[in-house]
Design brief:
The protein is an alpha/beta fold and about 260 residues long. The chain has helices at about 40-50, 70-75, 95-100, 115-125, 140-155, 170-190, 200-205, 225, 230-235, and strands at about 5-10, 15-25, 30-35, 55-60, 65, 80, 160-165, 190-195, 210-215, 215-220, 240-245, 250-255. Helix 5 (about 140-155) packs parallel to helix 6.
Length: about 260
């Protein structure tokens, strides 16, 4: 099924809720974008999907409560890229991507030929073959971001949870990675839930969009219904404009009139 469902989820780190009573879901094969200003609660909501933060309410993946799953069971269902991944010192790119296959290995088992093939496939998808023997710690921010995505692609979970997974990439690399994720979603019927700042990318790649603001879910629906000037101006800024280029939406923030005076 590869479905995700957040039901009345709240997160509170002790100084008041950062996520408040959010109910939201994504069906199999859907790409759900979660957008909103900084501090809206997007990352905290995503972290509940992998039980990385304490929360109230419930999160179900593939019809199972995340809190009832073992770490290995959860990792077979959900692959997660955090906003700031940690990279072990001295680990080669190939070995780091191979970590995505850990949920399928026994305690003392080594990687299989199938595991190795999936790692090379993931590296190839993101044009990282030449980096296979490089120490992850020596790569640039954009390169390490692609390596993190390669790891979750190799993981072959039914659900991808991505927290600003393309934030460190330049414009062309960002588009390339989004295309890879979209092709993987389509070919394997994978469900993608991603926090994303690029509203244009959300409009062009995602099936549905949820807008969060100050911990609350304020809008949810198809991109054409949610990513409108009137809706976005209420949450972001009155200068937001939704343009059309070759039939595709492009969302920009214009300088205010005062800036020209």
């Amino acid at each position: 099924m590869s479905t995700v469902r957040f039901e009345k989820v709240s997160v509170d780190y002790g100084a008041g809720p950062v996520v408040s009573d959010v109910s939201l879901g994504a069906i199999a094969g859907e790409w759900l974008a979660i957008v909103g200003p900084n501090g809206a609660g997007k990352s905290s909501l995503l972290r509940t999907a992998v039980a990385a933060v304490e929360f109230t309410g419930s999160v179900m993946v593939d019809g199972r409560l995340t809190t009832t799953l073992t770490d290995k069971e959860r990792a077979r269902l959900v692959a997660y890229v955090s906003q700031r991944p940690r990279y072990p010192q001295g680990m080669a790119v190939f070995d780091y991507v191979l970590l995505g296959r850990t949920p399928y290995m026994g305690t003392l088992a080594s990687e299989s030929t199938h595991d190795i093939a999936l790692v090379w496939e993931a590296l190839s998808a993101l044009r990282l073959e030449a980096f296979a023997s490089r120490d992850v710690a020596t790569l640039s921010g954009g390169e390490t971001q692609r390596v993190s995505l390669a790891r979750v692609i190799a993981q072959r979970a039914a659900i991808l949870v991505l927290d600003e997974a393309t934030a460190s990439l330049d414009v062309s690399a960002q588009h390339e990675v989004l295309e890879v994720i979209d092709a993987l979603r389509s070919s394997h019927n994978i469900t993608v839930v991603s926090a994303i700042h690029d509203l244009t990318a959300a409009a062009q790649f995602c099936n549905s969009v949820a807008i969060m603001d100050r911990g609350l879910l304020v809008n949810h629906g198809a991109p054409v219904d949610v990513l409108t000037e009137s809706v976005l101006q209420e949450v972001f800024d009155p200068s937001i404009r939704v343009l059309e280029v070759n039939g595709d939406p492009v969302i920009v923030s214009l300088r205010s009139e005062e800036a020209y005076q």
